[in-house]
Design brief:
Layout lengths: L3 H5 L14 H47 L13 H30 L5 H38 L2 H4 L11 H18 L2 H10 L5 H6 L1 H15 L4 H38 L1
Amino acid sequence: MTESEPNAQIVTPAEEPAGAMTFFEHLSELRKRIINSLYAIGIGALVGVYVSKYFIEWINKPILKALADAKLDPKLVYTHPAGGLNLILTVGVYLGIALASPMVLYQVWLFVAPALYKHERGAITGFLFSTVFLFLSGIAFGYFITLPYILHFMINPGSLFKLQHEVVPMISVNEYFDLILLTLLGIGLMFELPVLIFFLSLFGIVTPKFLWKNFRYAILIIAVGAAIAAPPDALSMLIFMAPMVGLYFVGIAVSAVVVRRRERRLAAAEAR
């Protein structure tokens, strides 16, 4: 046996997780990552408060357009002396969290990566990217597509309830921001449907065959959700349902990949 043969059997460090850490070393590392994340959020909040007025103008555009289309005074109000300041600080904090999220995710990655194998690191990187991409896509869809329909119906429900002249809205900017936050976060989370199906498939709870067989029930659930979240007209419901149906099919494809890989690993284990 040559001297080079034993070395050929040694697994390269890239395929091995990092060395074990003691309990106190884990605590020290966790403390470091949390402090760095808090610093990032603090700096992000300062930047967020500084630019919040521009962001407030941006999030106010849909409601001001809806008011103008309804031939109403396109203005928002606040009903508390500190309402304007509270809005600026609230928007600034949320912007700070959003701006700091890449740094926070990076700190989480630095904490867990040493304990992972190389292929696990690649899988988690792809998972994080997909999750963030789907969430941002949901927010963009909600702001540019769904929100105008919802606000138009809320501001001008006269065709359905005959209230065009009897009731005039006086909309608080703080309450409007709460509505925007709830709506966009809700749609962003609904766009995580493929990620949910990924986890359910990973634990063997669902399979692509099961998802395809129950497609009709999924459409029914999506339709009920669209009826609740969207204004009660056919066009708005179809606009809301279209991406959810598409994401359901993406979830079926994701489930098929997960199941195929699991079957391949089991077959390889049985062949040994």
